[in-house]
Amino acid sequence: MSKIDVNGTAVHYTVQGNGRGLLFVHGTAGDGETNFGHVREHFTDRYTVITPDYSGSGHTPLHPGELSVDELVDQVIGAARAATDEPIDIVGFSLGAVVAAAAAAKHPELVRRLILINGWARNDDPRQQLALDLWRRLPDIDEDAFAAYSALLIFSPPFLAGFGSEGVKGTVAGIKAELGTLRQIELDGRVDIRDRLAAITARTLVIGSTRDVLIPVEHSREIHAAITGSDYAELESGHMVVFEKTAQLIDLVVEFLDRD
Fold first, then answer.
1. pLDDT tens digits, 177-213
2. For 136-150, what is each residue's pLDDT tens digit?
3. Active-site residue flag, 224
4. Is position 219 annotated as part of the catalytic site?
5. Domains plus CATH for the chain?
6. Catalytic one among 55, 57, 94, 237?
7. What whole-number distance in Å separates Cα of residue 65 and Cα of residue 29?
């Protein structure tokens, strides 16, 4: 694992493979390895795959002060530029989709293709605000309840039930209310990048999940409508589509990146 200083934060990242740069940007409570380690090998034969941990995740320390989308943009783009000086493709998931979209708007000369998975552009959805606010407050009340609620938020009912009783217990036991996670959830509730979407010039694919209760699919549809010329696809999955529908997601990403 390599690291680069970005605005005083030591941002850790991995680089594997050869070819055009492909930047994967993880979501809240994840990191480059947990969100994308199981899909990396499908791309390293043709791409230089870059998987950074942004502030508060993985090996990257929490940035002092309030997190912002722009700070995370600087961190992931800093890692990408340390790995390659050529234009890149970006795949962003969840909060990573927000960061990826903002990066493409800020650095149009750097981003060739853009894939946004289960992202959102606004923070004024009352139902979503209710879910995020409860998610953030639960650790102060009951950390076990936070873990259980997290599992209910991120997985679709049939996928979670498919773990079986012991599997569900093990999954919940592995979810922790880390400080970095809580700061990222706070940022989730402040996201508003609607005014940036029109500046995106990269060819874009937006992917939504129809059984997502954390970030309802309507948000992906709105992003698609706001980015001129973007393509759109949906998968029947909960929020953690990177695990629920791994093969189908990889197929969508590969097909889009391989287009002329």
1. 999 999 999 999 999 999 999 999 999 999 999 999 9
2. 999 999 999 999 999
3. no
4. no
5. 2-123+192-257 (3.40.50.1820), 126-180 (no CATH)
6. 94
7. 18
